Amino acid sequence: MRYDLLSLEVFMAVAELGSVTNAAKRSHLATSAVSKRVSELEERVGSPLFIRNARGMELTPAGQSLRHYGYQLTDTLKRMDEELSEYGSGTKGHIRLHAITSALAQHLTLDIGDFLNRYPQIRFDIEERTGADVVRAVSNGKADLGIIAEQTPMLGLEVAPYRSDDLVLAVASEHPLASRSSVRFSEALNYEFIGPHVDSSMHILLFEQAKKIGGVVRQRIRASSFECMCRMASINLGLCLIPRDVLRTYIKQFRLNAITLDEAWAVRRLVIVSRSFDAIAPTARAFVSHLSPHPFAR
User: How far apart are CA 185 and CA 131, in angstroms?
Assistant: First the structure.
């Protein structure tokens, strides 16, 4: 059985005011239109909803039952309207976010926390992926947003700035470079590297920069996490390229030295990607605005 919402609203007004005339004024309808809608509801229910007498309109048992459910429906519609309004203003919703490890290990986790403090009813699904996997997830709609390094091929995705990270070399105290405060990349290539996963943005950057200067990355060990890379470096199995803020977590634990890489590309830009920032939900757009208030903020 289908009910017209305007007819239910008119019925609720008549039930409250006890008068077709007064309900018509509140609803900004003609008196005849209100009477017609009440009559149509009675036909649909199959029973009178009002007793009409000199004192006005009084509810029948059927009318009392309809009013009971009408109150529930009105409350539900009100809450629905409030919640949808919050979606429209970007204060509620669900965000699917895929990000590279170095973003999650640095500022992104804190940025998400700050955002949730402002909008506690938003839900996140967060997955840690390589740059290439993040791009694929955003491209095929499995993720609303992605955080990747700028040098990752983006396959036509739209891009917004996020932050920059400072890449340094981590070495054991026994390493020949341990006493140095900074080195050029060409000199670092004389030593064994502990490399990240082949699909990672760090791997791509490392090999691209070596190729540009005609060098070769010497690498016997690949590790899937920064912690594992640092652990390997701590026993002098090689040096590793790692964001400075990530290294701070492990430098004391593994007794490592941080060496500045004297190259412009070592200050790496992280970006937010989306299929279309205009097409994503308002909640996700609010999150992008939260992450990207200033271009490449440090």
Answer: 23
Whether 203 is in a domain gets the answer yes
Q: Are residues 181 and 251 in the same domain?
A: yes
173 class by beta-carbon count within 10 Å (0-12 exposed, 13-18 middle, 19+ buried): exposed
The residue from 88, 107, 126 where one domain ends is 88
Single out the residue of 289, 293, 239 nearest to residue 91, CA to CA.
289
CA 296 – CA 193 distance, rounded (Å): 29
Does residue 171 share a domain with residue 150?
A: no
Structure tokens at 295: 């271009």
Please give the angle made by the CA atoms of 46, 50 and 56, to the nearest 5 degrees: 160
* Number of structural domains the chain divides into: 3
C-beta separation of 271 from 147 below 8 A: yes
Closest to 241 (Cα-Cα) out of 163, 166, 164:
166
SS3 274: strand
What pTM does this model have? 0.64
Question: Of 31, 56, 88, which residue sits at a domain end?
Answer: 88
Query: What are 57-113's pLDDT values in tens digits?
Result: 899 999 999 998 888 888 778 767 766 665 565 556 889 999 999 899 888 999 999
Listing DSSP states for 44-93 in one string gives HHTS--EEEETTEEEE-HHHHHHHHHHHHHHHHHHHHHHHHHHHHTTSSE
157 in the same domain as 104: yes
Residue range 120-132, pLDDT digits in tens: 889 899 999 988 9
How is residue 56 written in tokens?
Answer: 């006005």
Instruction: List the domain range (segments joined by +) for residue 287.
Output: 93-163+270-291
- Same domain, residue pair 178 and 260: yes
